[in-house]
């Protein structure tokens, strides 16, 4: 299983490939101009920011639990507190 620290070393195209091979889709939210897909990679959550108007993945980043986006996730699912 690949971890975020390993995945972070790769360029975006390779991150996309590895993420879809090794992670599990959890849910998607709309956040401003993005559709944000949340994945579970091992024991780490990763967000994939998709510009749906341009149909491109703009960024892949670890979940920032302090960000205001968390309210969108917590409204729909219960994320484990220990992770």
If you had to describe this structure to a student in words, what would you say it looks like?
With 83 residues, this protein is an alpha+beta fold. It is 24% helix and 37% strand. It contains 3 helices and 4 strands; from the N terminus they run H-H-E-E-E-E-H. It has a 4-stranded antiparallel β-sheet with strand order 1-2-3-4, with helices on one face. A hairpin with a 4-residue loop joins strand 3 (44-51) and strand 4.
The percent of residues in helical segments reads 10-25%
Assess the beta-strand content as a share of residues. Answer: 35-45%
Could you give the order of the helices and strands? HHEEEEH
Poorly predicted residue ranges: none
User: How would the global form be characterised?
Assistant: globular
* Major pleated sheet: 4 strands, antiparallel
Number of strands: 4
- N- and C-termini, Cα separation: 17 Å
Average pLDDT figure: 88
Rounded radius of gyration (Å) = 12 Å
Going across the major beta sheet, what is the strand order? Answer: 1-2-3-4
Tally of individual helices: 3
């Amino acid at each position: 299983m690949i971890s975020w620290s390993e995945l972070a070393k790769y360029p975006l195209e390779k991150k996309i490939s590895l993420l879809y091979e090794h992670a599990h889709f959890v849910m998607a939210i709309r956040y401003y101009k993005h559709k944000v897909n949340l994945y579970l990679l091992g024991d780490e959550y990763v967000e994939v920011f998709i510009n749906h108007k341009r149909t491109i993945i703009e960024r892949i980043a670890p979940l920032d639990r302090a960000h205001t986006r968390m309210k969108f996730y917590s409204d729909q699912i219960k994320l484990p507190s220990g992770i």
